[in-house]
Every structure is written in structure tokens, then in C-alpha cells.
């Protein structure tokens, strides 16, 4: 089966991040034909400055190219004050700037979140979906993986051990696989 290249970004730069643990579980559970590459460059990304017509900072240009090349973008977001963290907002804004290669235009995106609280980062995830759609992305998930009370599901080693979230992740990847296959069978006019 043809590989599906997934590029994964987590919006937390915190040591011991619950969302990073979730991202690693998503990588582990994806299985064939997905190949999930985890990105760790958040700390290098400068604040967005609406650059247009000027060269992007090198790290941003590389990120835009990599996202443009990916079949699927996986974004895993913490929730801070019912919103997404600033570093992730910067990344999404950089990716959304209207210059070639338009990394988010038509890009299939999968969203996940985790929080120690009840709603599992659902508010942040909904906001992130709105932001991405503004840049033309195709959001494939609908709060399918929003891990509430995450400290019950992620152990001290940072491993997602909770059976329910693990099943939800596996089921989401199956739906994504079906969607990607359907998209690939559509012959452009
Ligand atoms: C300033 C601040 C605001 C927060 N606001 C929320 C919130 O609105 N909703 C929520 O579920 N958790 C909230 N939290 C808790 C975070 O979800 C929690 O710290 C989580 O572990 C952060 O993600 P990480 O572990 O991946 O870094 C907040 C935490 C901080 C520090």
C-alpha cells in the first residue's frame, strides 16, 4: 500500500507534556500505511510578523515546505485559557501566509488534544479547527480524540496507557485512512 506521510506538531514545549505523550501515542498507533514524523522545532520558530514579499526565516521556510509535502498534518494542542498556546498560533499563522507553497491549502489535518481537566482541550481544538479552515485546510477530525482527565491515562513515563483514548486514536486513524483513499480516487477535473 502507498505510504501516507504524516507530519506531527505538538503545541507544548513543556517538559513532561501530556500532549507530547499523546502525539507519541498517535505515532505509535498509526501503523501501516502511515508514517508519522514528529517535529520538535517549536522553540526555534520566531514570533509571526506577517512577512509578505520578504524571505521567510529559514526555520519557517523549511517548516512550510515540509508541511506542504506531507499527506497529512497532525496537530496536538494543549488548552490554555480555553484557547491554543501562542507558539502553536504562531506556527499556524506562519503556515497560513499566502505565499507559495500554500502549505495549508487543501491540506488534510488531524487534531488531537489532552488536558488534566474534564473537556480534554476541546475548546482549543475547536478554535484550532476554525483557524485552519480559514487557511483552506481540510480538518478530518471532529473532537474524536480529546483526552480529558489526562493524568489518569498518561503514566509517569509519559506513555498513554488509557485503553479508551488508545482505541479512539486507532479508530480515528482508520477513518483518516478511508478518507485519504477516497480523496486519492477522486480524479481532478
Ligand atoms: C495559563 C494556563 C491556563 C490553562 N487553561 C486551561 C484551560 O482553559 N482548559 C484546560 O483544560 N486546561 C487548562 N490549563 C491546564 C493545561 O491543560 C495543562 O497544564 C496541560 O498539562 C498543558 O498541556 P501540556 O501538558 O501538553 O503542556 C491551563 C494551564 C495554564 C498554565
UniProtKB/TrEMBL annotation:
Matches recorded under SUPFAM superfamilies: Flavoproteins
A Pfam family matched in the record: FMN_red
Gene3D superfamilies referenced in this protein's UniProt entry, alphabetically: 3.40.50.360
Positions of the NADPH-dependent FMN reductase-like domain: 5-150
Protein name (database record): NAD(P)H-dependent oxidoreductase
Organism the protein comes from: Actinomadura alba
